[in-house]
Amino acid sequence: KKQTGDFKPNENSIYIKRDGTLESAIISGSQQAYYNVDGLKAFVQKEIDEYNLAKGAQAVSIVSAEVENNVIKLILSYSDAASMLELAQDDTLKITALQVLSMKDAKAAGLTAVLSPEAAKKKSAHLAVIDGSGYIYTEGKVLFAEGQAVTKTGDFTVNAGEGRSYIVFE
Description:
21% of the residues lie in helices and 42% in strands. By secondary structure, it is an alpha+beta fold. Strands 1, 2, 3, 4, 5, 6, 7, 8, 9 and 10 form a ten-stranded mixed beta sheet that branches. The model has no long low-confidence stretch (mean pLDDT 89).
């Protein structure tokens, strides 16, 4: 059975699931003491409702929202990478492009040619192709992290630097 990693972020980050859906964590400190969970949820839900209405689909939802010691921790779920990139593109997300594919689809698209031979052999794995920088969690165990400035930091985590990163995960 494949291992599954949890998404318990302490920094702005994304979580890539095997089915191509995503979550993002926005964690922000504030000197102001006026934030409360209900107000935060209402504000974010209004933005999400407007986005989903314009998109014509339930593309984004709130997973959780917390405010503790003036630190906001918001986790959102996205049905696809395009929705995440469209809605969450601000100072917290430094990713400009993201694709999640099965290794079979990645091979058909010619994306496995840039991988090391060992990474390209993992037929039952998934490939995430990421442009930009950020902290990445994966649902499956990270098998390979390749690219200009990418570092595997744990069994289910990667720190992607500037440029294009390739993450192969179970």
